[in-house]
Structures are given as C-alpha cells and as structure tokens.
Amino acid sequence: MDEFARIEKFLAPLAGEAGLGLKDDAAVLSPPAGRQLVLTVDQMLEGVHFFTDDNPALIARKLLRRNLSDLAAMGAVPLGYLLTTALPAALPEAWLAAFAQGLETDQRVFGIVLLGGDSSSARADISLTATLIGHVAPGQALPRHGARAGDHIWVTGTIGDAALGLEARRGKLRDRTGFLTNRSLLPEPRLNLPLAGIVSAAIDISDGLVQDLAHICRGSGLAAEIQANAIPKSAAVAELDDDYLELRLTGGDDYELLLAVPPEKADALQGACADVPVTRIGVFQPGEGVNIVSGSGAKLALSSSGWKHF
After folding, report:
1. CATH superfamily assigned to domain 152-300
2. pTM exceeds cut of 0.85
3. Is residue 234 scored above 80 in pLDDT?
4. Hey, which residues does 86 pair with through a beta bridge?
C-alpha cells in the first residue's frame, strides 16, 4: 500500500474533528477555554525501544503512554496527539492493522484523538514519533525545578519492574506471573492526580530513578539523599532471588512519578493519590548530586546513573 492508502485505511478512522479527517496538512484545534496547552514529544525506534517481534498493538500503546506520562508529570489533562511514522515499504498490512488497533484502544482508555502527523518510508527499521497535547489551568503546570531543601522525595507505584521485565523478555530472569514483562510492555501513566499546590517539583521516571532525580536536583540547585531500603518493590520483584537494586534504580521505563513534597503536605499528597500507592524515599538538601544510602547508613556507588541516549 502507498502512503495515502495506509493513512486512509488505518489512521483516518482514528482522527478527531480537529484532525479534519487527515485530509489537510494541519489540524485546527480549539483548546479548552481558559487553559494553557502542554506539549510533549517522544519517539520509539525498532531495535532500540522495542523488539522486531513485539506485538504492534502494544508498541502503539506504549508510544502513547510514554508521552502521556510526560503530561502526567506536568499535571496536564490529555487532549490529542500527532503521529509520525517511518515504515518499511514491505511491512505487512497485518502489522499496521494491529498497530492502529492499539492506538484506538488507548484513545478510548485516555479520551484522546488523533489530530494529524506525517508518514514516510524507512529503508530498514521502523521509526515512530508521537506528539501529545494536553492542557492545564494557568500557572498550575508542575515544574521539575521547584524543589526546596527539606522537601521529601516521593514516588508513585513500584520501581524497577519494567527494567526487570526487559531482562525477562531477554531470557535473563524468570517472570513467573508475567507481571514484570507486562510492566515493560505497557506502562501506566499516572494521569488525573490533583497534585497542583501540593508538590514543589515533579518528573516521570523514564531514564531511571537516579538519573531523573538528578534532573530535579540540577534544576533546583540541590542534592538528594534516598534510602535504598525505602525504594518500593512489587511482589514480583520481592520473590526474585536477587534484589537487583542497581538495575531497579537505573533501568528506567517505569513511568512512575517522582515528586518533591514539603513535609507538611504529606497528608495532602496521600489524599490526592488515594488510588495510587505513594512512598517517601528520601529528602532534598543543600548541595549537589544524588546520594543513595543503605540501611546501615553507608553510601552506595553505582556503575551507571541511568539510560543514555547517545
């Protein structure tokens, strides 16, 4: 199928009204009255972010969810997305059909629509990019540079599941229930948490807890100290023979939220996250860098801080 046939058959049915049926080169979007737009973009490359034999529907859903997690970290409500694909000419129609089905599934789950994008051919590997558009009340977007000394460090959910799930997919460890594998393939963006006015800074954990925490530290001019034994682990991790602490801290792909919260707002945070587990793991303090402390009080050294794109 040529470019236009692919768009008409697989993508046009996903377009919202603002996308104009994907028959124009641009969308016409009216943001909700009195709201600020929040935009984020992320890409997934075959052989880098997904395996060639991964389920195309799950690839599509993870592409959207990685970006939705960025909106969640800003406290934004998702609205729609732009999609760019570079696909080999010989890619089977069945792959495209499954990919489009994955997009449709998460459009229903998260209440978003396709607004437009671009389609091109790839000489070899598949390349996918999504730009997510959301909205937030004026002045209520959550920054990553607003932490203050004395703020506590909190995380949602459990940390390290996705990195260990990737190891399971590579055949390097046993995932008895499939929980870890699923966390690697299908993250859960922590949307719809009313965090404005509670948290001082926020970021989602994509490149590893330590590396993403360092982004907040640099932006805020602070250091962070985290307690290794406080890092929340899932039941699936707890039953493994090894704690895999370093991989859990640096592996990334969790898409949980990492939050700076003043101590007096701990109750408010737990109330705002009533349906999502949150755990306090450390504190921001004067200085620079991220320190990890064991149960005995010794500082732990890591061989890597997290995922590197280059």
Report:
1. PurM-like C-terminal domain (3.90.650.10)
2. yes
3. yes
4. 120, 127
Which letter, b or e, does each residue of 224-262 get, where b requires 16 or more Cβ atoms within 10 Å of its Cβ?
bbbbbeebbbbebbeebeeebbbbbbbbbbbbbbbbbbb
Extract the tokens encoding 139: 């002045």
CA distance 188 to 69: 8
Residue 163 has pLDDT above 50, yes or no: yes
- Residue 127: exposed, middle, or buried by beta-carbon count in 10 A (0-12, 13-18, 19+)? middle
Q: How many CB atoms lie within 10 A of CB 204?
A: 24
The helix (H) or strand (E) run that includes residue 289 is: strand 289-293
Locate the domains of the chain by residue range: 3-136, 152-300
Place of tokens 């590997």: 125
- Rounded Cα distance between 135 and 148, Å, is 26
Q: CATH says 3-136 is which class?
A: alpha beta
Residue 280 has pLDDT above 70, yes or no: yes
Other beta carbons less than 10 A from residue 194's beta carbon: 12
